[in-house]
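Figure 6 in text form: structure in, sequence out.
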């Protein structure tokens, strides 16, 4: 490649902003954006994540990954003919939640994407910080439970075909390796590009399954996406097993470019095997009708224990009203 003063893009005369070693490409800003769009488009096709006419609920936290995901899906939705609706949950975690909410509101306004905004404190009278103070459960496990419930109810009431999550390659592979080492094989079944919908459980899709963390970071940067500039105070400290595995995989990737994507594809090929056992024994909660492993779902149990009553039914009502107000569902 002729360089002159600077390296030129593989497709045009513009200067290179990044080198994608596994694809043997040097890309300018414009062609990097196109490269990521094409990559996500191929992921959608390869794993059959979305079909024409689908309604996709995109969970947006305000961090770079989910923000980049919404931006990419919003661009691809026109080309592929599917509908995108954003969901943001104000978790009531002090300043962090306030900033995240502002960021997501701005992003959705800029993109013209409808936003379903759920305020946890307003809905159940307690945010994650309050719930953590009342519970012995670790913050992220409690928060994950609440988010999964609210996402599922919103997607179910919206009649969405899937919930799109911003998990990328470097989020997923370390958990896949850890689950394999510990032989929690059904856990791997939850970490693939797609989990199918079943009755009241709305399936998840991960369009960034083959996109690395550095790629989402660059994408968000080059698109000047608004992102929340601080981490949640409950974010796990560095030094976890997942961090160690991530470092190991990145070292292999440096020596063998393309290794991580090849690994992710190999896992995806065996997903049906890993998914065996998932969702078995799931029924509907006696209180709210959402997926449950016994007669009461995890959210109703949690709110019953911490707040004195199972709040699933109220939440479903509340979300239904919000969606009617936003004209995203018709009044029955
Ligand atoms: Fe929730 Fe933990 Fe994420 Fe904070 S770091 S938003 S508590 S899951
Ligand atoms: Zn270029
Ligand atoms: Zn319930």
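Output sequence:
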């Amino acid at each position: 490649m002729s360089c002159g003063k600077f390296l030129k893009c593989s497709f045009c005369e513009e200067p290179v902003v990044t080198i994608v070693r596994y694809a043997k490409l040097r890309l300018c800003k414009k062609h990097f954006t196109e490269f990521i769009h094409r990559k996500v488009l191929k992921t959608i096709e390869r794993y059959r994540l979305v079909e024409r006419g689908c309604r996709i609920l995109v969970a947006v936290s305000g961090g770079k990954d989910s923000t980049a995901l919404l931006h990419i899906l919003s661009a691809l939705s026109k080309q592929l003919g599917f509908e995108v609706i954003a969901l943001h949950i104000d978790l009531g975690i002090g300043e962090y939640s306030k900033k995240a909410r502002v960021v997501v509101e701005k992003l959705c306004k800029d993109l013209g994407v409808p936003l379903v905004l759920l305020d946890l404190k307003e809905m159940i009278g307690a945010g994650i910080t309050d719930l953590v103070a009342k519970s012995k459960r670790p913050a992220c496990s409690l928060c994950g439970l609440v988010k999964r419930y609210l996402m599922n109810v919103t997607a179910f009431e919206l009649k969405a075909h899937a919930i799109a999550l911003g998990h990328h390659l470097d989020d997923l592979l370390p958990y896949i390796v850890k689950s394999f080492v510990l032989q929690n094989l059904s856990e791997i079944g939850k970490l693939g590009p797609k989990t199918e919908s079943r009755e009241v459980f709305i399936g998840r899709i991960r369009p960034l399954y083959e996109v690395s963390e550095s790629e989402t970071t660059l994408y968000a940067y080059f698109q000047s996406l608004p992102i929340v500039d601080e981490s949640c105070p409950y974010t796990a400290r560095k030094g976890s097993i997942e961090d160690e595995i991530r470092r190991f995989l990145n070292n292999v990737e440096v020596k063998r470019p393309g290794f991580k994507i090849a690994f992710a594809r190999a896992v995806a090929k065996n997903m049906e095997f890993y998914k065996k056992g998932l969702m078995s024994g799931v029924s509907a909660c006696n209180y709210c009708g959402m997926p449950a492993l016994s007669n009461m779902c995890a959210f109703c149990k949690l709110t019953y224990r911490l707040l004195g009553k199972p709040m699933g039914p109220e939440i479903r009502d509340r979300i239904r009203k919000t969606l009617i107000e936003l004209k995203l569902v018709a009044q029955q």
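Caption detail: The mean pLDDT is 94.
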